[in-house]
Amino acid sequence: MNKAKPIGIPALIPLYQEMAKDNPLLQALKVSVDHGQVMPNIPQMGRFFSSVGAALEIAINGQLSPQAALREAQANMLHR
């Protein structure tokens, strides 16, 4: 099951060490976790993700170019 889909980093250190031995992706994820910061739970983060998500959908559907969709997302984030 663990090989079928990534499950994140196990909290149990011995299990992480066993799983990470031959898994460079899990090792890289651990480095990111060790050096990253938790995203704040503030309204601006929701605004960012909803605007960028909409921009990606618009660009993928061909309604706007990726650049134009991201400009629209930026405008949405700044003017809410």
Q: Supply the number of structural domains.
A: 2
Number of helices: 4
Total DSSP E strands:
0
Structural class assignment: mainly alpha
The fraction of residues assigned to DSSP E strands is: under 5%
Rg result: 18 Å
Low-confidence stretches: none
> Order of SSEs, N→C?
HHHH
Largest sheet features? none
Distance between the termini: 43 Å
Helix content: 55-70%
Strand and helix layout:
Blueprint: H1 13-20, H2 24-35, H3 43-60, H4 66-78
Helix pairs in contact: 3-4
Walk me through the structure.
By secondary structure, the protein is mainly alpha-helical. It folds into two domains: 1-36, no CATH class; 43-78. The chain has helices at 13-20, 24-35, 43-60, 66-78. Helix 3 runs antiparallel to helix 4 (66-78). The radius of gyration is 18 Å and the shape is elongated. The model has no long low-confidence stretch (mean pLDDT 88).
Name a few traits of the molecule.
single chain, 80 residues, mainly alpha, 4 helices, 64% helix, 0% strand, elongated
Task: Kindly summarize this structure in a few lines.
The chain is mainly α and 80 residues long. The protein contains four helices and no strands.
